[in-house]
Amino acid sequence: MHFAYPPRKNSNPPPFRPRSTRIPTFRRFLRPKTIAVAGLAILFIIWLFSGSSSKHSPQRTISGKPPVVIVTVFDEKTWGGSPEYLESIKDNREQYASKHGYGTLLVSAGGYELNGAPASWSKVTATRHAMAKFPDCKYIWFLDQHSYIMNPDIKVEDFVMGSKKLEANMIKDLPVVPPDSIIKTFSHLKGDDVDLVLTQDKDGISAGSFIIRNGEWAKFFLDTWLDPLYRSYNFQKAETHALEHIVQWHPTVLSKLAILPQRLFNSYNKPKHGRVFEAGDLAVRFAGCTKGAGENNCVDEAKRFSSQWRKAFAYA
């Protein structure tokens, strides 16, 4: 008896084609609950990128009143405690500020908590203090206590910080830390881009006289400079060497920096450290002066220029 063989299956069956799910998926998308969730998500995105941002206050406009604030920090440990010396410095700042409608912040180094860092760091905290006290000022000029403003006719905002003046005076493609730093000042910087001006002397960057444009960048810069890591690091020249480090290795700072000729606002009393003061210069600093009664002491160096600035201011 013969049985019929079942039909042989094709050895090359057609490829498997999964059942299409497009229509069911689309139908699920059209469910009311799904539509509501998607709508809420879209509304949230719109709110996130438009509605919420409109509630954020735009960057505050600085009125420029006063145009400049002069900051000087007094440290009795470095000037020998002469009341006459102290008063002459204060009087110098106040007369100059009064003539041009500037503000002043004349403070004691002991008024700031530096957590064990050298008192010279107080220049940074005082400058930050000035920004808080004079939020609408346009520029802040930190000027070391061992110095006099000598030319009462010069306005900082025009003579030093004016856009055209900056472009004419900034030293481009200059090693930031002389003589051979591979990091150099920008060659394409415009005057309106400058937020910080410094000078160099024979030892490098001078932190005894600097000018900064008030604003968000200034806050960032000062907070960076005042970072606890820099204050705790054993730099030989404390905040000055910290500043040299920052301007070399932080492009965000270097891109806003201009180095100007020293005599514009940071002349020295003697040639040992840098460019010497000449009649007509804005300011003179008694670089390297010492306390006490020894040679090159600060009080005696100041006396060389005291009558000059008083005479200049009397006829201004």
UniProtKB/TrEMBL annotation:
Residues 1-20 are annotated as: Disordered. Signal peptide: none annotated. GO terms for molecular function: alpha-1,6-mannosyltransferase activity. Keywords: Glycosyltransferase, Transferase. InterPro entries: Glyco_trans_34, Nucleotide-diphossugar_trans. One of its GO terms (cellular component) is mannan polymerase complex. It comes from the Eukaryota. GO terms for biological process: protein N-linked glycosylation. Gene3D superfamilies: Spore Coat Polysaccharide Biosynthesis Protein SpsA, Chain A (3.90.550.10). Belongs to the glycosyltransferase 34 family. This is Uncharacterized protein. The lineage of its organism: Eukaryota, Fungi, Dikarya, Ascomycota, Pezizomycotina.
